[in-house]
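re the bet — no i am not wrong, look at it urself. input seq straight from the record:
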Amino acid sequence: MHVDLSFCRQEFPALDIRVNGRMAAYFDGPGGTQVPTRVIEAVARYYREANANCHGEFATSRRTDETITAARQAVADMLGATSPDEIAFGPNMTTLNFALSRALGRALTPGDEIVITDLDHEANRGPWQALEEKGVVVRPVRVNLPECTPDYDDLERAVTARTRVVALGYASNAVGTINDVKRVASLAHSVGAVCVVDAVHYAPHGAIDVRDIGCDFLLCSAYKFSGPHVGILYGRRDAFERLATYKVRPQSPRPPHKIETGTLNHEGIAGVIEAIEFIADLGTALRQQAAALPGSVSKGAATPEAGAPQPGAVQPDADHPAKDPASRRSRILSGFAAIELHERPLFAMLMDGLASIPGVTVYGLPADGKRTPTVSFTVAGRHPADVARFLGDRGIFVWHGDFYATTLIERLGLAESGGVVRVGIAPYTTSEEVGRLLEALKECASK
């Protein structure tokens, strides 16, 4: 089953940009997606109608409080959290994770251990490595090459009775590998350790259920799923309540406020609500298409055909049944199912095309592996920056370098040669754009 989400392109004003006479093709989504008009309007509407600090006894302040409360509920619905009070906001994931690591670090003593992986973004490595100044031992888990997957045997050896925190990414922002976060959370809890999941790269591509994962904390960023630059932290209530955060005296000691230092990005938080509603509305296409199938009875979120589940396949949440179309959680699940069914055929087309171009080397799992629709590659004889520039001049936007997955790029032996070129598929990507990209790469590789 394939779902065409090209109708959503009309919501993205940035897609009208032209470069040297060519329409822009955005394959830079892993570094931040484009933003629909509804999000832009929500930010502007906040400035027009609600711009004030919170907790005041006047209209605009009350509207700000209501906006923040509504955004916590929207994110809780997206992540499958039990309560909106488990959702905190901050400037970005990195800043929130440093606040989290410092708070957890207050209870650590010399000799305590933290487990991280070599696959991760530095935002989920550096904050934990910083605690080495307290005498904490940080144990990095190896990466299997060339698959670019965590070495789970090495991870199990690394987790011991001295482990206090296990931190890993839900998916690699460089090569797309989706990790078994549920397995790792269970392993961490088996020794009484806290599990922290970086879901920044996974969040745009698949539904998240924090209760099913069993993690203690999970972080993501709204600008990766068509929202503003706002960082998000989920903390399971009991873990959040125990967290000894650094805060100023008037700040509430209760979650989620205890980790939210200073004035929040209120206008950005207003946009987060609409970014989540955008995802939820994408499920409409899936429900309509499923209803149109001969003999079908559509009851909310459809899933791929029976058989082996696709990586990251969306399943209805028991507490928010997909048959209830009024449930935002149900609509979100349906939206992510639509995203997956739109992105995967395009990604398969991209991977097949890359494999056919002489001189192109792709890193990571195959297209049908447990991965997101993000791929990194090199072109023989061309510096990654040159490839990105060649494509950029033709209106095709891609990233190059290491994308803060610095350790992984070093393990691949590519740091000295400029890293890799990274391409990602998004809900607004079309097959015509994938074809343009492949044709341009063929020209680039032949020069």
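see?? The chain is about 35% helix and 15% strand. told u. also Confidence is low (pLDDT under 50) at residues 297-326. so pay up
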